[in-house]
Fold each of these.
Amino acid sequence: MADQIARRRSVLDGWALPSRAGLASLTNAGTAARFVYRGAPELVGDAFGVSLPTVPLRAHAQSGRAALWLGPDEWLLLSAEADGSTLAVALSSALNGKPAALVDISHRQVGLIVSGSSVEALLNAGCSLDLDMTTFPVGMCTRTLLAKAEIVLWRTAGDTFRIEVARSFAPYIVALLDEAMHGIA
Amino acid sequence: MAGLHRTNGGGRVDRTKRLSFTFDGKAYEGFAGDKLASALLANGVHLVGRSYKYHRPRGILSAGAEEPNALVTVDRGRGRTAPNLRATQVELYDGLVAESQNRWPSLAYDFGAVNSLFSPLLAAGFYYKTFMGPRLLGSNWAWHKIYEPLIRRAAGLGKAPSLPDPDRYANRFAHCDVLVIGAGPAGLAAALAAAEAGARVILCDEQAELGGSLLSEWSVEIDGVPASSWVDEAVRTLAASSRVTLLPRTQAFGYFAQNFVALAERLTDHLGNPDPAAPRERLWQVRAKEVVLATGAIERPIVFPDNDRPGIMLADAARTYVNRYGVRPGLRAVVIAACDSGYAAALDLHRAGTAVAMVIDPRANGDSGLAGSVRAAGIEVQIGATVTATRGSQRVSAVQIGRAGTEGRASTGEWVPCDHVVMAGGWTPSVHLFSQSRGKLAWSDDAQAFLPSAIAPGQAQRSAGACRGVFGVAAALDDGFAAGRAAVGREPLGRTFKVTHDITDFRGIAGSHGAGARGSKAFVDFQHDVTVRDLKLAAQEGFRAIEHVKRYTTTGMATDQGKTSNINALAIVADHLGKPIPEVGLTTFRQPYTPVTFGTIAGASRGDLFDPVRRTPCDAWAQAQGAMFEDVGAWKRAHYFPQAGEDMHTAVARECRTVRSAVGMFDASTLGKIEVVGPDAAEFLERLYINSFQKLGVGRCRYGVLLNEAGFIIDDGVIGRIAADRFHVTTTTGGAARVLHMMEDYAQTEFPDLKVWLTSTTEQWAVIAVQGPRARDVLAPLVDGVDIGATDFPHMSVKAGRICGVDARIFRVSFTGELGFEINVPADFGADVWEAVWREVQKHGGCAYGTESMHVLRAEKGFIIVGQETDGTVTPDDVGLGWATGKGKRDFVGMRSLSRPDMVRSGRKQLVGLLTADPKRVLEEGSQVVEGLRPPAGTPALGHVTSAYWSEALGRSIALALVADGRTRIGTRLNVPMPDGDVAVDVVTPVFLDPKGERLNG
C-alpha cells in the first residue's frame, strides 16, 4: 500500500494564471485547510486563535489564520494546510457536546489572489458590487457572484483580494479573469 | 485637399492630419476629427442612401445620433461588418471602408426606385391590406411565400454579417454618486458642480469629444472665453479629479429600476489599426446614487412637400458642419427658420462663405431676435412663408416659396435655386431616458413639447438643460450646475455663467405645412418613409390613438425610433382629429436609445465562457481514456467509455456486462452532498424526508425521499449517519443546490427551534462507485483501518477509514443491484485514488462505466431517477416507494397533501415495467401507452414510457412506464403506437433482474 499513497492535486495544477503587467495579476493562494463553522461564535473560544468577527461582512486575520463572517451564524475558517489536522482536533474538542457544526471543506474550494492597481476594475468585469475603498474596505468579505459563479470575495489589502471559489468553478473564474484582463487599462 | 467644401479655417478638425477613406468604392480624403458624414459633405457627397420603402435618394439630415437617412455599412474585414451605422456618428480613420445600403445596382441608379411609381399601393397599412389573401392555399400563403420574402429583400436596411463576430467585448459594473448623461453645457456644468463637492462622478457622452452643442458654437463666449476653450478647460478640470470618470464615445441606452443605467462605450471602432486583442466595446452597468439627465434636445425637420431631397438638412446640423468640422454643405442655401437656430445657421453659413438666398420663417407672426442681424448681413427674410415644392433628382436644386394660407394650403410662388436647404422646425427635448426610467411626461404648451414631470418611485434623478425645456447656453449651464449641486445634496449656489451671443428661442412649430401637389411626398418619418398622407389616411380609417397609428403606419418604428419624427407625426394626427396633442398620446420610449451590438450585450458570455463548465477530479482521467461526455446541469459527466471500434450501444452493452460479471467503477462525484450537523439533525431530517431517521443507527444508511409541500417527489438520495449529530446527505446531481436552499429555508423559517446547520460538501468529496461481484476484492488491498467484510460492513452502511493513505468515508450502497461501495475521498485526492482503484479494477477484468450504463443497470432493478420517472406530479406510492414512508410519523414535508382525494383516487399513474412483444424493439422514451390497437386521433393515453433501454443482462429490451392503474394491469398487454405502427407491450413489475436482491450480498 505504500506505493498507493494519494497526493493532493489542486484543480489549478498546470494552469498558467493570467496577469497584465502593472495592472493586475492572478496567483494561486495554494492549498489550505478550511472549515465552515456554524453556531454561536463564543462556543469556539480560543480554539481557533483568531476571534470570529461579529461585525457582518468582516474578516479577522492573524498569523496565517483567518475567520470570515459569512452569515449571522456562519464563518469560513482558513489556515495553512499543514495546520489542518491539529486545528481540526482543537476545534472539535472545543466544540464537543456543544450545539454547533464544524465541517471540513478544505478541498471544496480553491483560493485565488487577485492583485494590482486595476484590481477593482478587473473584478468589476464580473462582480456587480461597489469595490471602492470607502464601501469595500480592507478586511471586508462577502459571498457574491463573479459573472456566473458564486465566490467569497475578501479584500486583504488596498490592491489585493482573495477569491474563494468552489473547486469545479475555479477554471471558469480563471478563464473569466483572463478574458477580463483584456478589458482593463 | 480633404474636400473642396472646406471652410478656410476653424473648426475642431485637425487639418494637418489627412485621412483617406472610401465610400461605395470611391476614394476620398478627410481630416482627423471628421465624422464620415462631415468628410463626405466636405467632398460634396450628399447622396448617401436610399429610403426604406420608395428607394428615394437621401442625404445627410442631421449631425448626430438621430440621423434617419445616412445609414452605412462599415466593413473592417472578416466578420467585422457593421450595418446601419449612422454616418453622422462614424468617426473617420485612415483606411475606413464604408458602403451605402438599400440600393441596387448602385446608389445613383437604384432599381428599387420604381417602388415610387407603386406608392399608392404602399400607403399606410399596406402590410395588412394588400398581402393577406388569397386564402386558397392556406392562411397567409401569399404573405409567407411571395410578399414577405420580396419585401425583405427589397426593403431592407443593412445586411447582418454572416460570420461569427471575431471581436472581444468587455463588461464593467460601476457605482457612483452622480451619473451625468450628456456632456453638453448642462452636463458639463452638472459634473463640475458634483465633482467640486468631492462626489464620485461618471460623465458619459455619445460623442468622441465632450462638449455637446458647445462644440458647434462659433461666437458664443462663456465667462469671457470662447465656448470651445471653456469646454477644454472644463474637461481638463474634470479629468484631473481621481473621483471623476469621463466616458466619451459612450451612449447611455437603457435606464432601468433603482437608478441602474446601461452604457455602451465604443473602444476601437474609431481606430484605423486597433489592437486585435483589445475589446471593441464595453458595456457599463452603472448603479448611480443620483442621475443627472443632460440629454439635450433634437431639432425637428419641417414637413413640406418633397422635403427629403439630398441637400436638405437640419439647421443645427448645418451649424455643426460649418462651425465644428469646417465644412460648407452647400454653395447657395435657403433657410426655413421656425426658431432661432435657423437664423443662427443663416449667419454661420453666411460667415463661412455660403450664399444664403433667403430666410423663410413659416410663423405668421414669427420673428427672431436674430432677424435684424440676418437682414444686416444682406439676407432677405420672409415672414409667414413656406416651401411648397422642391426640385432636384439626386440633390436639391430649387425650392418654391409660397405664402401660408388658410387650412394649411399655401399659395405657390417663385422658385429659388439652391443646393442646400436648412430647416429649423423647433426643438424636441430628448426625454427618452427619462421616459425609460418610468418617469411621467407632461405636455407643455409653453415649450410645445413633452417635458419630464413626475419621477418614478425608486429613481433618484433630475433633468437639466434642454432635455427639460431649459434652452440656451446660459440657462443650460446654470440649470446643469444647480442640478449637479442638488445631486450631491448641496444648496444651489445661484451660480450664473456669463454667456454672450446666446440664442434662446427654440420652440418652433410642429406638424405639416401642406402635403403638396399630387405625386409629391411630405415626409414625416424619413427612415420608414411615412408621409403626411399616410398619417392622415390612418386617422381617416379610424385610428385614434397614436400607438395604433404608429403600428398601422410604422411611423417611429425604425432604428431611429422616430427621434426626428414623433412630434411632427403626433401634431399631424392631432390636427387631423381636431384634438390637442396630449389627448392623442405619446408613444413609448424603449431601450436601446440607439442600436447596441449583440456583442456588447453578450460580453464574455460566449464560447467557453458562455456558462461555467464543471468537471470532477476524475475528469482528466476520463478524457484521457477517450470517454464521451454528456451535460448534466453544468457538469460534464462521462457518458460511456468506447473502446476502439465501439459505438455507444456496444460500449454500453460491454460496460453493463462487465459490471454484472466482474466489476465496474463509476465517477459519482457530481452527486449533491450536504452535511447536516447539530443535536437536532435527526429530527430535522425526520421532518423533511418521508423516512424515519431518529432510530437510524450511527454507521447506517437509508434511502431518503424528499417531497415538496404538494406531496410530489422532488429529490432522493442515500443518507448516512456519521455520528449521533452528523448526517451525510446525498442528493441528485441536478438537485444539489435546490435541496440545500430548501433545507436552509425550512431550518430558518419553519423549524427555527431546531439546532441544526447545513453545509454543502458536494465539492469536498470525490466519489468513486465500485460495483459488481468483485467490488470487495478491488478495495481490499487499498483500504486500511476498516473492515469491509460482509459481516462487519453490511449493505446500507457507512464507515470512516483510509484508502490510499487518505481519510475516506466508505459507503456500502448499490445503485446497480450488485455488491457495491461508494468511496468518498477529499476532492484533491480524487484523481490519485481513482487511478489506484483503476489499477485494481483492471486486475479483476473490470471497467470504468459512464452514466448511460448507470442508467441501464438501475433500470434493470427498477430504481427510479428523479426527473425521469418523476415529473413533479408523482407521489411515493405512484412509483412504488410507499414502503419508504416512516411508520407512525407525525409529520413530514408533503405528508398532508398525500391524503388529498386526488392523491388516493384510483386511476393514478403507477410505475410498471414494459416488455415489448418483440424483444429487440427498444421503445422511445416519452412515447404514449394506450389500450387498443390503432387508436384513433384523440384517444387518451394511459401513460407514457419514462425509461427504455437495451438490457444486456436480460438479452432484450426493457422499459419503465407510468401507466394509469399500472399495478392492476400487470399481466395484461398494452399498445405503444408509433409512426411505423403499433408496438405491443406486456405490463410487468418494474424489477427486471434479481427481484429478491440476492446479488447485493455477493
Amino acid sequence: MTWIDILILLVRCLVLALAAATLFAYFTLFERRLLAKFQHRVGPNRAGYIPLPGGKKLFGGWLQPAADAVKLFLKEDVVPAMADKWVYIMAPGFAVVPALIIWVAIPLGTWPDGLGGNWLHYAPMDVGVLYLLAVTSIGVYGIAVAGWASNNKYSMIGGVRASAQVISYELALGLAILAVVMQNSTFRTEEIVISQGTMWNIVPQFLGFIIFLVASTAEVVRSPFDLVEAEQELVGGYNTEYGSMKFALFFMSEYIKLIAMNAIAVTLFLGGGNFPGIDTLVAAIKTSNGDTIAYAVQGLLTLGAFLLKTTALSFLSVWVRASVPRVRYDQLMHLGWKILLPMGLFNVVLTAVFGVVFPADSIIAKVIMGIVGLLVVVIVSATATPKHAKRGVTMVNTPAGN
Amino acid sequence: MDVLLFGIPAVVAIIGAIAMLLSRNAVHSALYLLLNFAAISVLYLLLQAPFLFATQLIVYAGAIIVLFLFVVMLLGAERDEDTPHANPWQNRGALVGGVLLLVELCLLYVYNPGTIPVAVDMDNAFAAPAEVAKALFTTHLLPFEIASFVLLTALIGVVVLHQRRS
C-alpha cells in the first residue's frame, strides 16, 4: 500500500462521512415536512426556495437544515457543574462514531473500479454481516454514557432504559439477520446482494423482514420505541443536559443510525442496488461505449436504486412515527422477549427446514416460505396482546415484564 | 508500518487495562475495559482472525460491558467506598504476583520466542468463519455442546427464579 492509496482511502472516507451528514440533514427536512402533511400542517417551508413566475415557490424550505445547523453552532456550549466532565464531553463522540463507521460494510451500489474492487463498497470483508451487528450493538454506549455523565436523574433513567432496550432487541435483530445469512449461506454483504438476483429476500424471509423492521426501530430507539427520550416523562431523556453542537451530534447519530438501519434492510431484504434489467443495460453499454462508461452508468444507476429503496423505507419510518403511539415499558419488554424472540427462533427453524428439504434455488419453496411467514405475522399480530393491556390502568404498580 | 499497526493497539490495550484497575469510579473502569476490548479486537484483526474480531466486539463490547454499565447505573454503585482493604495480605500478594510476572517476562526474553515453532500454519483462511464453524462442529463438537448445555442451564435457572417470585 503506497501513500497514494492511503490518500485515496482518506478522501473516500471523508466523502462517505460528509454524504452521511448531508443525508441526515435532509432526512430531518423530509421528516418534518412529511409529519406536517400527516398532521394537516404545512411544516418548514420558508427558508430557501426557487421563485417561479407568477409568485409560486419551488422547493420551499430546502435551506432549513443549513439554518438549523447554523443555529446549533452559535448556541452557547454549557457543561453542567456536577457532570463528569470528560465522559460528558466524549459521549456525543461515542454516539456518532458507530453511526458513521457502520456504512463501510454496506454495499451502496456496484461501481467496479476495473481491478476487482467496488468504489461504492468501502470494506468488503468476510464477516460483513457480523460487523454490522457488532457496530449496532456498540451504538448504545453514546446514550447510556451520556445519561450517566450528565448527573441528572432524568438523563440517567433515559440511559438505563436505553441499555436495557438495546440488549433486549439485539437478540431478535440478530436472529432475523441470521435467517438471511442461512438463506444466502454467506456472511458477505455483497454476496447477499448478488444472490438476490432472481428473487429478493423479502419473499422467502418475509417473517424475518417484519422482525427486522420492528427490532431495528427499537434498536435505534425511535418512535414508537422512544422511551429513552420520552418528553412527557423524562424531559428529553439522555440528552436533557446537552446543548449546542453536542446535542446536534446526538441528533445526528440517531438519524444516521436510522438511515443506516434502513440501508441494511435494503441490502439484506430488498436486493441492494440491483433492479431487474440492470445487467442487460450494462452489457449493452459495455459493447457500445466501452468499460469505463458502462461501469460509471452502472455505479450511478445502482446507487440511485439503493437510495430510492432506502428513501421508501425511511418514508415508512416517518409514517410509523406519525401513526403509532409510544409503547409502555412493560409492553416494550413483552414485545421484545415474548413475541419477537420466539418469532425469530421460528423463522430460523423454518429457514433451516426449507433449506434442507428443498433444493437451494427452488422458486416455489421460497414463495411457500413467504406465505408461511405472512401467516405467522397475521396470526401473531391478531392474537398476541400484552397481558396487562386487558386490565388497563391496574398494571401501574406491577414490575415490568411480568 | 507493521510495528506501528501492532504497537498502537497493543499500547492502547495495556493503557486501558491499567487505567481500568486504577480508576476509582466503576463507570470509568467499565469504559476503560471497553477501550481494552476494542484494542484487543483490532489485534485479532491483525492476526487475520476477522471472525474473532467480530465476536469480540459483539459479545464483550456489545453485550457484557453494556450489562456492567446497566447494573452499575441501576444500583448507583459507581463510587468506590473508601474502606481499607479487607484482606491484609492483598498488597503483599500483589507484590509477589508482580515479581513473578517480571521473572516470566525475563525468561521469555531469554528463551527467544522467535525460535519456538508456531502452533498453527497461518494462511489467509485459517480463521475464516467457515473454518471456525468446521472446527466447532467436527473436531471440537463435544466442548461446544457442553458449553451450550451450561448456557441452557443458566437460561432455565432464570426462568425458574422468575416463576418462584410470582
Amino acid sequence: MNVDLNLNDDCRAMLSGDCGPALQFAMQLVERAAVVMGATDLVPVTFAHIDACFYAGRAHVDFARFMLDSGAKFKIPAWTNNGLVSLADENIRDPATETARGARELMQLYADLGCRTVWTCAPYQLPDGPRLADHIVVGESNAVSFYNAAVGARTNKYGDYLDVACGLTGYAPMCGLHTDEGRRARLLIDTTAIPDSLKQQDIYYHLVGTAIGLAAGKQIPAIDAVDPAVGEDALKAVSAAAAASGGVEHWHGIGRTPEAPDQQTAFAGHQPAQTVKVTLDTLAAARRSLTSASDGPVEMVALGTPHFSFTEFASLIPMLKGRKVHAGARLYISTSRHVRDLAAQKGWIEILESAGAQIIVDTCTYFSPAVRGCRGRVMTNAAKWAWYAPGMLDVEVCFGSLKECAETAVKGEVWRDESLWRELS
Amino acid sequence: MTQLQARVLYPGTAEGPVLWLDEPLSFWGGFDPATGIIVDNNHPQNGKCLKDTMLVLPATRGSGGTPGGVAEAIRLGTAPRAIIMATADANVMIGAAVADRLYGLVCPVLELPGKGFMSLRQAVAVSASTSGQILLLARASGDKHR
C-alpha cells in the first residue's frame, strides 16, 4: 500500500519494528493516514497539541496505556488539550464516576508519556510555542485555526490517535495546510460595509468569525482588512467562531495575520474564487444564530471558550471589582493554570472570587456538572460556546459582549448595551 | 451477481445487511458507542442501530473525536461489520486500525465513490473482501436483523 509514499531511513526503521512496537504502530498509523490523505511524503514536525487526552471512552485509555507500556515517549514538545475533568479541583465533576476515574487515569498516562501538561484549548496563550512556518500537529479546532492563521505555523486538523502517532514519531503526512498551495486564500470577505466603530468592539470578531464560517465552510477565507493593532483575543475569537460554524482550519486577516500583508500575498497571486460581502444584516444574522433565548433572568454566565486570556482578565477586572455576582446567578470563567497563575499574581483571582466568580482550570465549563445540570438561560461572550451549547447541553443561550456578560452576572438578568446593538438588531 | 471494486482504507472481510445513510454521520456526538445507535436528532436515520450492519454512508462529519467513537464502538461490539464511504476519511481508518491493534477486532473500512456507491442504495446485503471487492447479495447469511 505504500508504493507511492516516500519514507526515509528513520521512518523505515520505525516501521520495521527496530524501534519497538509502540513506534512501529505509531508509524503504521502515520503511513496509512498519509496514503488515505493522498500524501507522497512525510514532513518532520516540531510540536504537537494532543487532543486524545480528552476522555471519550475506554479505548482512549487502552491506546495510551499500550503506547506507554511499549516504551513510547513523545519525540517532540507535546502539550495537552483540556481534560474531561480538572486535576486541580476534582469536585468539578463527581470524582467517583467511572468516567471521571477514566478521565483522570488518561490524563496521568499522557503526563507519563512525556507531555507538558498545560491542559488548555488555547495553548497559543503560553510562551515558547510554535512559530511562523513551523510544521506542527494540532487537533483542537480553534487551535488549528489560530496556529495556522495568527501564528503562521502549519497544521492540518488531526483526529484522535493520529495526533499522538505524529507526536511520537515526529512525522506527519505532507499535504493540505502543510503545503504552500494548500494555504492560499480562496474566498475574499469584503467588510467595507461595516463601520470602523463596530470593528473596534470585541463582539465584532465573534460575529464576523461566525459569518465567515457560514460562508466559507472548509474553504480558506481572507478578511479584506483587519486592523494591525487588534490583539490576539480578536484573532482567537475569529478562529474559534469560524471553526465552530463552518469548520474553517485556516484564514487570513489582510493587514494583520503573518501570511497576509496584502491581498496579493494572501491569495498567492490568484484571483479570489468568490467574494462574499459582509453587511450589518450578515452580522445581525450571525448574532441571531448565536442566541436561542430571549432576554431575561440568567442561571449562569460562562466566559472563557476558548480559555480566557490574561488580557481578557485585565478587561474584566474593572467591570467586577468591588461588585457581587447576583445571588440567583453563577459566573464561571474557564482558563488554563498558566493564565490563572499570572492573573493570581496580579491579585485578580482574589478580586473575582470575592465577587463570587468561580475560576475553572484544566477543563471547560461545558463539562462541569453545574453547567451539565443547568436547564435555564446562560449568557456567554464566546461564539463557540453559543454555537454548540443549545444542541450539546440543552440550555438556552444569549450571546453578548464581555461588558454585557459582566453586567448580566451582577444584575442576574440579561443586560444589553444598547449603543452596541443599535446597528445590529 | 454484481461485483464492485472499492479502495481499501483498512483491510478485512465482512458480510451482512446493508444500512444506507442518506447524510454524513458524526461518530462523536451523533452516535452513541454504548448502544450503536445514531443519536443525532437532525440525521434522517436517527434511531437506527449500526451494530452488525454493513454501513454505507457518504462521509463523516468532521470531528477529531471520530477515531475514538469508532474504536470504542468496535471494542464494545456495537460497531458495523464494515464501513463503506463515498469519501475517504483518515479518521474512520485510524479508529479501525487502533481497535484491531488493541483488541484484535477487525472492522474493514472501504472507499467507494460515484456510481458504485449509489448502486448500494437499494442493496439488501453485501460482502467485502480484504482486497476491496464488494459483492451484492440477495440476503445476508447469519443475518440477525431480518
Amino acid sequence: MEKYLYITLFAPLVGSLFAAMFGMKPKKLFVGIVASLLLFISFISAVILLVHVASTDEVVKAQLFDWITVGSLNIPFGFVADPVSTVMMVTVTLVSMLVHIYSIGYMEHDEGFNRFFSYLSAFVFSMLVLVMSDNFAGLFIGWEGVGLCSWLLIGFWYHKPDLSRDQNPSISPAWAANEAFIMNRIADLGMLIGLFIIYWHIGSLQYDVVFSHVNLFDISIITMMGIFLFIGAMGKSAQFPLHTWLADAMEGPTPVSALIHAATMVTAGVYLVVRSFPIYSQIPEIGLWIATLGAFVAVFAASMALVNTDLKRIIAYSTLSQLGYMFVAAGLGAYWVALFHLMTHAFFKALLFLGAGNVMHAMDDELNIFKMGGLYKVMKWTAAMMIIASLALAGIYPFAGFFSKDKILEVAFDSHHYILWFMLWVGAGMTAFYSFRLIMLVFFGEERYKKYGFHPHEAPWYMLAAMAPLALLAIVAGFFEHSFEEFVTTLLPEYHFHMEGITKVALIGLTTLIALSGIGLAVYKYSKGGFSEKWKENPIYKLLYNQYYIPQLYDKLFAQPYRELSQIAWKELDLRLVDATVDFIAGIIYATGFKSRVVQSGNLSKMLRWMVIGLLILLVLVVLYSPVR
Amino acid sequence: MITLNHYLVLAAILFSISLVGILRRKNLLMLFFATEIALNAVNIALAAFSKFYHDLTGQLFAFFIIAIAASEVAVGLGLLIIWYKRTGNIDLDTLQSMNG
C-alpha cells in the first residue's frame, strides 16, 4: 500500500517539473494534458488508499528518509494515510484534477499556459505534503509550500499595473500576492512558536508521540500550544483579523481561486485544528473562543458579500463565511462535522468558482454583476450548475450543504451555545440571500450586457464536463454523511447529540425557513429590478461595501507608519551611519593606494634598490633579534 | 695560514661589489654580470664552510647553484636578445611599461 501513497504524493510533483521544463516556451497543449493525467493517476491511487483504509482499518505509514537528526531531535520525512488524511487526499486530488482539466480551457489564450500548470501541480504536491505528513515539521513544509504556490498564482498576471483602491479594491495582482504572503508570514510566526512550544515540552514533533503525551502537561502549557497553533490556522484560513488577503487573492486566475482560495488551501487551518484535536479537546475554553471567532467571521463575511458587486469577491466572502462555520464545529469539539463541511464545501464552492470562471470567460473578464443579467439564455449549463452550487451553499435539501451546514447549527444549539447558533442562523439567511442575489443578477432579469457590447457564449464542452462531477457531488455528497462519520470517527472523537428528535426537526425547519426566505427575498427583489439607488447612500451600505474600512484602516495603522519608519531608517540610519562608515573605510584605502602608487614605477633598478633596502632592514633585524646568540 | 674567515671576507667583498653593481648599473647585461658575481660569492662561502666542517653538502649546493645559474643566464640572455631586437637598446630606464 505504500506504493499508492508515494504515487499519490509524487505524481503531481512529476507533473509540475514536466510543465516547468516548458515554462518559458509558448503554449503547448500536451503540457496541460500530461499534468491533468498525472493528477488523475494521483486521484485514483488516493481512492485506492481510501478504500483500503476504510475496509481494513489499517493506517498506512511510510518513511521516506531521515530529514533532520541532531542530538535528540529526529524529524523523518514520514507520511501517513489515516482516515483524516485520506479524506483530505481524495478531496484535494479530485478537485485539483477537475480544476486542471478546466484550466486547459480557461487558460487557452494565456501566454503563461505552461507556467500555470507547473505552479498548479506544485501547489497540489505541497498540499498533499501538508495533509499526508505524519509530523508537524512536514506539515509546516507543506504549509509554506502552499503559501508559496498561492503567492505565485495570485500574482500570475504580475504585469498588470497598480491601480488606486477606488478603481480596483485589490490594487493589482502583484500587490494582492504580496499582501497574502505577508499576512500569512505573520500567522506562521505564531504557528512556529506553537511548534517550538510543543517540541520544548514533548521533545518530538511526531503526531503519535505528541498526541499521546499531551495530556501529561499542565493546562496552561496546552493552552499556549493551542493558541499559537490556532494563530497559524487563522492566517491560512483567513480568519478575522487576518482576513483581508483572501478577497484580494481573487486577482489570480479563476481556477486558482476555485482550487486554492476556496476548496483546498484555505481549509488547511481547519485541517490543522481537526488534526490537533487531542490538544484542543483538552482546552474547551480555547475551543469556545475559536467557535466564537468562527461565528463572528461567518456573519461578518456574509454581510460584506451582501452588497458587493464583484462576482468573484462575493464568492470569496462566502468562502470566508463558510470557513467560519467550520471553525465553529471544530471549536465546539465536533471535529468530524468540521471535516465533513470542509469536504462538501470544497465540492460546491469549487463548482461555484468554476461557473464564475465560465461567466468571466463569456464576458471578457468583466466582473461587475450589474453589467450582466439574463445570461441564462446563452449559458444554460453554467447557469444550472451554479444554481446547484448556490442551493448547496444555501443549505437546501437534498444538496450537500444541507447536511453539513445544518449539522454545524445543530452542534451549536446542542452544546447550549444559543448565541452562536443565532449568529450562524442569521448567517445562513444572509448566505442564501447573497448567493441568489448573484444568481439573479448574473443569469436572470434584464440583459444589461447588451448595453456594454458583450457577446457572451457558453464554455466549451470539456470545461463543462470538468464541472459535472462537482455538480453531481454537490447534490449527492450529503447522503454519505453516516458512512463518512463512521469512517473518520475511527480516528476523531465522536460527537454525541443530546437533542430530542422534535427539537432537531424544529431546528432543521427553522434553518430551512430562513434559507428559503433569503432565497425568496433575493428572487423577489431582483426580479423586480433590485433595490433602489438610494440604498447606496445609506451609511451601512457604504460600510459594508468598503469592507468595514478595514483595508484602509490597516493601511493607515500599519502600512503607512511602517513606510515612514523605513524611510527614516533608510535616510537617517542606513545612509548616514552604515553607508558612511563603510564609505569612510573604503575612502582611506583608496587614498592610501593613490598616494603609494608612485612606488610602482616599473623601473627595475629602482625596484632592486627597494629590495636591497628591505634586505638590509631584515639583516639588521636578524642581527638585533636573532634567537641564536 | 688561511682560515675560514679569509674566505668569508672574500665572499662578503665579492657580494658587496655585486650589490653595488646591481644598484648602480643601468645596462641590463651588466646587471647579469653583477648577479653572477653575487651567486659566486655565495658559492665561495658554501665551499669554504663545506671544507671547514668536513661536510660535502655545501659543495653539492655550490654545484647546484652553478647549474641553475647557467640555465638562468641562458633564459635571461635569450629574453635580453629578443628585447634588444625589438627596441634596439637594453637600458633599464627605458624598461618602464609596468609603470603604475
